[in-house]
Amino acid sequence: MTASSDLLPGTGLNQRVSRIARLSAYLLLGLALIRFWIMPLGSSFFCDESGSYWTIQAGLGQIWTRYVEFPSAPPAYAVIVWLATVLGGAREYAMRLPSVLAMALACVLLYRLVQRLFDRESALPAVAAFACSKTIVFAATDARPYAILLVFIIGSTLALVRWLDSARPRDAAVYVVTAALIPYYHYLAIPVLGVHAIYAWAKLRDGGPVRLRSLLLAAGAILTLLLPMMPPLLVLISRRQSHIWSPSPNVRDLADVLSPPVLVFGATFGLFLAWLACRKLAVRVTALPRPTVVLTLALMLGPALLAFVVSVASPTRIFVPRYVIASMVGLCMMIGWAIGRIQPAAARSIIIATIALSSIAAFGYTRRFWPPHIDHDWRGAMAAVRQTAGKSTDIPVLLKCPFIECTPQMMTSGNIPDWVLSPIALYPATGRVVSVAFLFDDISSAYMEANVVPDIERLGRFIVVNSAQDEVFDAWLNKRFPHYSGHALGAFGDVHAFEFRRDEKVGGAGRDRTDE
Q1: d(CA 291, CA 287)
Q2: Strand order in the sheet with 496-502
Q3: Euclidean distance between CA atoms 306 and 297, whole angstroms
Q4: Which SS3 state, helix, strand or coil, does residue 191 take?
Q5: Could you tell me which of 386, 373, 400 has the C-alpha nearest to residue 496?
């Protein structure tokens, strides 16, 4: 590389390289957004999205009660989804569209934030890395609150930067409101407020126009706006162990969050292609203000490292990519700044194009042209169950609950909560639906023997639907129904639906039939 900025002089060849690179970047980014944000809109919900639908199913007046019972969709988000169903009906695309619109707004806000903190050259690469990141790709069409959460994370950060630069009351008011809304969309995003405090302190030490008294007033206003969420937050904290499903993270998990392999590959390979196409590259490095560096690093490292330490040092496992999605904002800001230092502009365009292409190749779901949001086709599975069971039948349908909160004690209590059957709230099943606990044990076995097995033996058939392998449950089926044979009702991705029928000539209902 060279330190010269006089690159790609205006020859016809170099102009064509620059034009082709720019058009390729825009084209591939556009294709990525269509593939990731538009095409999956109408696909089947997976279990967590069905929890969002269950939260709003009983109407606006029941949202708070249902959230306290099962915290699947925060009320601030559930109200938006409810309104979407009022306007567009209880359809997947209607309930996912708020996330798509929110992610588009988040990209616009990120562009403005990076442009203000760094420069225009860094803004588009940052947005490209952001839009093509795995966590962001998933959140963009997810009927859950993460896309809207990002709007308030990025929007409040931009408002804070503007306020601390200008001391305008309007910017202060926008910051207080948007920052206070962050925990209402996910309480595990609260560390972002700590990042803001670190940045405000750095600006104060550098002699910014906003004084300590104003910062304390803003903090007090945010805390006041957060008071209504404290009671349910305390309830959630007291029940936190019942919601833990992820294993203890390791250093590799942390590295995957802070240096996503697809982004790293796309940027590195793009740099190589840029070097081949442009013949010579330059790196233009300028000094950044200390508070800007502090903000970028704190936002990138703070949420992820805090969740990692808590998950390693305690039984509370909260190191999940979507729970530390704020770190993606800081990471993409850093990536944008790094790519923005590279000259000429054609090189940056090539890198952006390669990032988009790498993302499409990695997350593009090439098995079929029209891709799902996630390969959990509950809609197709339940349609097959209805067709197999018929409209009026008492055939047992053993529905393996996909939520870790579904305990054997809950399933056998005789008072099963509605949220356990969230997957069939939008996709109803016929037959006698029997909920099977997330982890099958002796309590579940005893309950099945007393309440379900007699009906199965009387009818000589039953259906099993599950979305996660449970070897204990499969072994129980093998042992308890050796004289039944099963067949799959279809291909529904990671949701498996099987019908079992009595067949005295078949030696066993092997586990392979429940894992296909």
Answers
A1: 12
A2: 432-436, 396-400, 461-466, 496-502, 484-488
A3: 13
A4: helix
A5: 400
Q: Express as a percent the part of the chain with pLDDT over 90.
A: 74
Among the listed residues 408, 158, 400, the one whose alpha carbon sits nearest the alpha carbon of residue 295: 158
| CB 411, CB 444: distance < 8 Å | yes
pLDDT band (50, 70, 90) for residue 286 = confident
**How far is the C-alpha of 72 from the C-alpha of 48, rounded, in Å?**
7
Q: Write the pLDDT tens digit of every residue in 257-273.
A: 999 999 999 999 999 99
Mean pLDDT score, 4-24: 67
Tokens of 140: 């963009």
Q: Give, to the nearest 10 degrees, the angle between helix 75-88 and helix 169-185.
A: 90
pLDDT digits 0-9 by tens, 93-115:
999 999 999 999 999 999 999 99
Identity (one letter) of the amino acid at 148?
A: I
Report yes or no: 348 and 394 within 8 Å, Cβ to Cβ: no
Nearest of 460, 393, 466 to residue 436 by alpha carbon: 466
Strand partners of residue 177: none
Average pLDDT over residues 204-223: 95
Packed helices 290-313 and 326-340: angle between N→C axes, nearest 10 degrees: 140
* Residue type present at position 233: L
pLDDT at 289 over 80: yes
In the DSSP assignment, the letter for residue 8 is S
Are 72 and 48 spatial neighbours (Cβ–Cβ below 8 Å)? Answer: yes
Cα 187 from chain centroid?
A: 15
What SS3 state is found at 257?
Answer: helix
Q: Nearest 5°: phi and psi at 441?
A: -145, -170
CA torsion, ordered 96, 102, 108, 109, to nearest 10 deg? -150
Specify whether the CB–CB gap between 1 and 282 falls below 8 A.
yes
Instruction: Supply the angle between the helices 212-226 and 169-185 in degrees, to the nearest 10.
Output: 40
Q: Cα–Cα distance between 227 and 211 in angstroms, integer?
A: 25
Place of tokens 């089947």: 44
More confident residue, 503 or 75: 75
Task: Supply the mean pLDDT for the chain.
Answer: 90
Q: Where are the domains of the chain?
A: 109-142+150-228+249-356, 378-515
* Contact between 353 and 295 (Cβ < 8 Å): no
Tell which residue, 294, 289, 62, 280, has the closest CA to residue 201.
294
pTM equals: 0.91
Cβ distance 114 to 159 under 8 Å? no
**Span between the terminal Cα atoms of the chain, in Å:** 53
What DSSP element (H or E) covers 434?
Answer: strand 432-436
